[in-house]
Amino acid sequence: xxxxxxxxxxxxxxxxxxxxxxxxxGLQADLLTLAAHGCHPLTVVTALTVxxxxxxxxxxxxxxxxxxxxxxxxxxxxPVAAFKLGMLGSIEAISAVAxxxxxxxxxPVVFDPVLASGRGDAFADEDTVAAMLELLxxxxxxxxxxxxxxxxxxxxxxxxxxxxxxxxxxxxxVGAGCxxxxxxxxxxxxxxxxxxxxxxxxxxxxxxxxxxxxxxxGSGCTLASAIAANLAWxxxxxxxxxxxxHYTWHSLSAGFRPGMGQYVPNRLWRNLNEHQHPEPSLEVAxxxxx
Length: 290
Ligand code: PXL
Prior knowledge:
The protein is α/β, with parallel strands linked by helices. The chain has one domain (12-286): Ribokinase (UDP-N-acetylmuramoyl-L-alanine:D-glutamate ligase, 3-Layer(aba) Sandwich). The chain is built from eight helices and nine strands. The chain is globular and about 50 Å long. The protein starts with 11 loop residues before the first strand and ends in a 37-residue tail after the last helix. Mean pLDDT is 93; it is low at 282-290. Bound molecules: 3-hydroxy-5-(hydroxymethyl)-2-methylisonicotinaldehyde.
């Protein structure tokens, strides 16, 4: 606790993310997840989007200087227990975030490398991927790619880039400087979803989960924010990862379809009483969890 904080101040987590006005993903998903974990969220806006539950229509990146200014004003006022990085929107924003993080080397960084929306809208080109690898990975405590993102990031980190196994992707990503990688398996064709946490000596833990029906918007944001919240509460990293998967799986299982597009996780599932807890919907044919 800092000398100016009241005794009941919760752990503070700063998220760098883009606004998703549907509250399905992005900044708003982070905010709900962090609040559901009893953390106080600080939100640095990296971009605005125009979207509905069916897709992203437009993206307006923030100027890099604005990203840095938002973060610095908050960091000079409040002690931050963990950082979470989501969609950063531009190379300028990536450089600005990297520079801010370098002043706080002891604060854990959870990096969800958002390259595309779950519905396939591209958010990052070649140069953006290169900037993420070079500037952010060396400052990352845990990177949380899905298997498609892991392959995309790892292919630029070695000679053979095709058909990489997930352990090889993890080895390359850890070699590029992040301390841990959690590769999620929702896009693989296994019967159950297997998520694996890797460190510098290889796999640390595997967790497998029932595949849920439906296509969910913002599941990666939920998982990464939950890890950041658990780290901010002081949990050891493997336990933070286990508990965050449990929280995310239940958020998806209680998910709902508010519009004409994807399902949205219910990050407040723990607050629902038995009358409010909806049955997971089984009417969706698609079994892909994005
Ligand atoms: O789920 C990744 C994601 C992150 N951030 C924003 C998004 C999305 C997906 O659509 O819109 C703002």
